[in-house]
## 1
Amino acid sequence: MTTTFETQRAALADVVAIPVTPFAEDGTVDPGTYRALLRRLLDGGITTLTPNGNTGEFYALTPEERRLVTELTIEEAGGRSVILVGVGHDVPTAVASARHARELGAQMVMVHQPVHPYVSQSGWVDYHRAIAEAVPELGVVPYIRNAQLTGARLAELADACPNVIGVKYAVPDASRFAAFARDAGLERFVWVAGLAEPYAPSYFSAGATGFTSGLVNVAPSVSLNMIEALRSGDYPTAMKVWEQIRRFEELRARNGSANNVTVVKEALASLGLCRREVRPPSRTLPESERAEVAAIAAGWSI
């Protein structure tokens, strides 16, 4: 029987939340706090969760910690959310992570961009094909940050692997996104704006129907307000939300996104929801910059 992935496709056309991974005082993953943060997202109306995303510090976690985060997410969600597990690194590691996610009941995997100094376009197809073919029952979502990749290559991948159903597109160029999506097949995939709320209005205008979010950890209602406006084509309202979150996202993006996770955790710490600690190569904000983040978070309806 052919899998249609209708539930998974619908879940991608939404706010795709990337939970942070909180750490305890001794530096280990804090399961209790992580579960509490997940409950807050679920109770706030979030129905798509991506454990082991970049906001979850994927590359700073050990293999055992990544498995733990996947397990905690699926257990805590308890069917209240569609789970899109981040996988990556070398092919055997990514395949093992994807199979682990499948065994636990996840519905999809997001394949992080290959971290390698030499990525050919045909090699990109081979990498994703090896992972997608290992878990044909799961929806597969490539995370694209490579501006050189063409839409034709994505179409080639999907020809071989029909479970490649969506794309997290994170090249900061709305015109390039519009062309890429049309070259790959605008209606063939669910297009997720992978650069979160700041890019969501422009990417929705070009065909995206969902966006990822780290900000949602702090203020789920703000992210939901934006997607509701975008779904209804109410761009003036969407841009009001954009203005509301603009400074917060500028702080995250500053210095080549050095503080992307740091600012989110700082906001959560200011609300008493988790510790601010991040792992190298990220770093906590200096005392002099914490007050601005706390003031922004306090100003949202949370």
Note: The radius of gyration is 18 Å.
## 2
Amino acid sequence: MTKVKVGLVQMSCVKDKQPNLDKAIREIRNAAKQGAQIVCLQELFTSLYFCDVEDYENFKLAEAIPGPSTDVLSEIAKELNVVIIASLFEKRAQGLYHNTTAVIDADGTYLGKYRKMHIPDDPAFYEKFYFTPGDLGYKTFQTKYAKIGILICWDQWYPEASRITALMGAEIMFYPTAIGWATSQDEDTNKEQYDAWQIIQRSHAVANGVHVVSVNRVGFEQEGEMKFWGGSFVANPQGKLMYLASHENEETTVVELETKDTDHYRTHWPFLRDRRIDSYQPITKRYLDED
């Protein structure tokens, strides 16, 4: 299969878990009605983005993976014959938590999970308080419709992560994400930040010759101090925007991708072939100085 229809669910969230899960299921059904075969939900879609504060109570939001949410989503995936990409707060063991994305195949089979590798610690994004860095490495998943790679939010900024995922055979790269603007910022700063976020991901599409699908949350949170900027998008293997969501609205959209485009673009723009892998050893250093 080379033509694949992907569904992007860009939504706002509320405090309580169940309404968010219910809304996600409604939008998965909506995407399936539009023909979606793979549906990607945004990062940590069952809750508000709780990492704006360091609060031990928030650990109660975590759950096992597989667990309650994946059990429900597996039934939906099987019913609708869709692949579901679900970003969840994972409780691995007592006192051990990850920012994790589960992948469920179209027959309801739980295929596995990817644990976020790069963990930020910025004002209003205190993720190192909650999440242990991923220890599963980079991952791809062979689904019914395509071999997909999953990375999560802060992973977006790192070309090494996308390169390794592409080298593992990903035909489509998905990024569930949660990023926004402080409402105190000026519009020039907002535009600069969003453009950087989009450009770096489109560059991953170009460098690796694969489609990139980025799904972000939308809406005001943190008592109005944060506006999650939406702007979810799909880029083709040359970085061309095939779909761009608004900064304001909840949207569920389906976009058809042609995975064999990878062969065309990699043949005509052979960035993957022309890599000088013999020269890359220094990249494993933190910085190239004498220490």
Note: The longest helix spans residues 187-208.
## 3
Amino acid sequence: MRNSFFCIDAHTCGNPVRLVAGGGPLLPHAPISERREIFVRDHDWVRKALMFEPRGHDIMSGSIIYPAYRPDCDFAVLFIEVSGCLPMCGAGTIGTVTAAIEEGLIKPRETGRVAIETPAGRVDVTYEEKDGYVDSVRLHNVASYLHDADVAVDVPGIGRLRVDISYGGNYYAVVEPQENWSGLDGMSASDIVACSQRLRHALAGVCNPVHPDDARISGVHHAIWCDRPVNDVSDGRCAVFYGEKAIDRSPGGTGTSARMAQLHGKGRLTVGSSYRHESLIGTIFEGRVEAEANIGPYRGILPSIGGWARVIGHNTIFVDDRDPLAHGFQIR
């Protein structure tokens, strides 16, 4: 049997976004958080086939659009990437909105504004459109917060680090320059990946954050290494790690949200402040602390992230059962 998937390929500030416009599995009409569980249980081969090699690569990221269950949302999204079916993805949201509007997959109820149902909650998005193209997108992300500060962890090859565990749609280990880590200068991409893998493994035995409103969101699967900016217009620079070997080419939407929540939680970023976040390749997300928020017993923020995406092509992908590599592979 051969399955066909029609995809719109795009990138958000350098990070790939593959929007599955046709061929995605039909799922029951239920909250997208429940549909996510069904997808992971019964259809995760779709994610692996489209994200892993030979049809994808180590940093591949994508999404599938579904009808919204919530009446206050325009559509729902499942985020698929090499690391799994995520609760939320900021770069994926910016790329998905851009591609879906430019290619006519969705028609917003109100021009310049859409509400998206994600497994992490409702995400409001505004966008600027000119001559049929989406120039920029600002997503108003889910409530984000600092979960744990100054967690001590011994990382092989690095030594003892103090990291902050922060939530921005996914949980992150936030690392700033300190005695045993001097910063991003001089680190290669492979260095960042190796350090991140060791850090995540070490943290597994130290902490396991669970979202106070949804126990299905748990664990530290991402890391963000933070440093001083290179670009004069930026406030900070970062390398976001996810999956097994992936470094986000954008500054990371949930990563930037987690970073701002961490800074706010430590009294270093106030409501109304902006935070221009620079990626390893120099692209920038403009974050902003819109308001404070309560997440269970935690005091956090409502962040927004501004960025841009570009559609780069149409892609019809075949997944043929005769192919011994039909469902993809990863080299570890």
Note: The radius of gyration is 19 Å.
